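Sanity check. The docking grid for magnesium ion depends on where the pocket ends up, so I'm generating a full predicted complex first rather than guessing from homology. Inputs follow.
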Amino acid sequence: MTTIVELRGIGKSYQTTPVVHALQPVDLTIEAGDWLAVVGPSGSGKSTLLNLLGLLDRPTQGRYVFAGVDVSTLGERERTALRGRRIGFVFQQFHLLPHRTAVENVALALLYTTPSAGQRTTAAVQALRRVGLGHRLHALPSTMSGGERQRVAIARALVGAPDLVLCDEPTGNLDSANAHAVLDVLNDLNADGVTLIVITHDPDVAARARSRVHIRDGSVTSADPRSAPSATTAKAPA
Ligand SMILES: Nc1ncnc2c1ncn2[C@@H]1O[C@H](COP(=O)(O)OP(=O)(O)OP(=O)(O)O)[C@@H](O)[C@H]1O
Ligand SMILES: [Mg+2]
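Predicted complex below; grid placement will be based on this.
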């Protein structure tokens, strides 16, 4: 088993007035191949947790070991490099470039890691085929359905072969048919070994994951019968 994520007592307070304790100290372990859903109501700390996991923000306490690297010790540059090479992101609002085709949007994710434009395009085509969009390679986002756009965003997250794909409300902007198509893609990817963490307030989305943790008022509590419940500790089962 390869451990991808190891959080030990990771917490986050925003130094606003008054201070917001957005995430109480949490322990969390995620192994390669896991699919963990983090579910909780609005304002409970889900995006705060995702931003910490994705090296987009720093915790105010605790230790984070990502893929064997203690990231607390890294400078901003090294964190950015690690994030770019090893973590893929999928957000609620797709964030596609409107005047670029699907294949261009995906290929752009490799701009800083793959010097050859031909290789970038080949990898982008493969990633789009993987999410079932081999027939929409040259479509512009404005001509695609919400579910198709989100699948382009998933292909973009995948194309660099990351160790971890983080999704923040990936179906939040989709109707139920499109949401199902996106969840089917996530299911296939996980079956192929892609490690997923999906943040959601939707219990139906959470139900598709292999394991779940609940977050409420910044406290993560285990909701999965296979892991030991505790007020501040959640452990994703292997
Ligand atoms: N940059 C910030 N500065 C101050 N407080 C913040 C900041 N970001 C988030 N918060 C606060 O931290 C808490 C957790 O916010 P977070 O965005 O993590 O919630 P969430 O679970 O993702 O909610 P939603 O489901 O609405 O996206 C909230 O009380 C929020 O107001
Ligand atoms: Mg959020």
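Relevant for the grid: The beta strands are 3-14, 20-31, 35-39, 61-66, 69-70, 87-91, 164-168, 196-200, 211-216, 219-222.
Also worth noting: Residues 176-191 form the longest helix (16 residues).
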